[in-house]
Design goal:
Tetraspanin_EC2_sf; 2 strands; about 280 residues; Tetraspanin/Peripherin; mainly alpha; membrane; two-stranded antiparallel ribbon; single chain; transmembrane helix; Tetraspanin
Length: about 280
């Protein structure tokens, strides 16, 4: 009875743990989607790099939902193997998130040099096209400079010998001022690097915090797996003990049980009469 009560108690704890995992899965999807959406403003300029940590965090969300379903099924059906697999996969996901945290922080430290190479190459192509065709208003650099309120790689001086594009011009303070009387002073390299650093830092801290929350109920899942094993072993031991008790009964009782006729050995011969069939050896005696 004590084992049954403990199993029931830990089952409810695992159910609460599954609810917590569902919340963390929703957080992974929301944070990963937000980070990728923010990265889309300059993904072409940085050559589709530096998005992997946010994408991995996003992919861990659906995986967490699958693990929640697995944990519920294992707990409901008392499947020890499935519950053990649930615990193992969950530990793997937690380790991946801690690795993701370290990777994001390492990427953040090496960020300025790698981003500078991508932005310089992209800006050279933009200048070449701008000097010949003045480019379209929907070009990546025009959109980025307008949205991030920056101009050039290091500042407006990058456009020497050329007129500033419209995206470098800030809004006039007075109605009579022309569109380009004022322009943005800061370069886009510093702004983009700062935003990517900020997003990588959010990815690292989010992965670490979610991993810590997901590890809170591991003890309950592991302990319930052990209790299921003890329950199964106790059931097998009870069956074995009953079988041994039957084997070690006194010989007189075993002989009486063997001599008792089976209900199938009774067959009617005449109305109101029944004859007990005996074995051939008994007849000879």
């Amino acid at each position: 009875m004590a084992l049954t009560k403990r199993i029931k108690c830990f089952k409810y704890l695992v159910y609460c743990y599954v609810v917590l995992l569902t919340v963390t899965g929703c957080a992974q999807i929301f944070i990963g989607t937000s980070l990728l959406w923010g990265h889309s403003g300059y993904y072409g300029i940085v050559q589709n790099k530096l998005w992997a940590p946010a994408a991995i965090l996003l992919c861990l969300g659906p995986i967490t939902f699958i693990l929640c379903w697995m944990g519920c099924q294992a707990t409901n059906q008392r499947k020890r193997c499935l519950l053990g697999m649930f615990t193992t996969l969950l530990v793997t996901c937690i380790c991946v998130q801690f690795i993701l945290c370290g990777w994001s922080l390492a990427m953040r430290e090496n960020l300025p040099s790698s981003v500078e190479i991508f932005i310089d190459d992209s800006f050279v192509e933009f200048l070449d096209k701008f000097s010949r065709t003045k480019v379209d208003n929907l070009h990546l650099w025009n959109r980025m400079q307008s949205q991030l309120q920056c101009c050039g790689v290091d500042g407006p001086l990058d456009y020497r010998r050329l007129s500033l594009p419209w995206s470098c011009c800030s809004r006039p303070e007075h109605a009579y001022e022309s569109a380009c009387d004022t322009h943005y002073k800061r370069g886009c390299l510093a702004v983009v690097s700062e935003q990517i650093k900020h997003r990588l830092l959010i990815t690292a801290f989010s992965a670490a915090i979610i991993a810590i929350f997901q590890s809170l109920g591991l003890f309950c899942a592991v302990h319930l797996t052990i209790l299921f094993g003890k329950s199964d072993n106790g059931y097998d031991n009870n069956k074995l003990s009953k079988k041994r008790q039957q084997q070690f009964l006194p010989l007189s009782i075993q002989d009486k049980r063997q001599d008792m006729p089976s209900p199938l050995s009774l067959s009617p011969t005449a109305p109101g009469h029944r004859v007990i069939k005996t074995s051939a050896t008994g007849g000879q005696k």
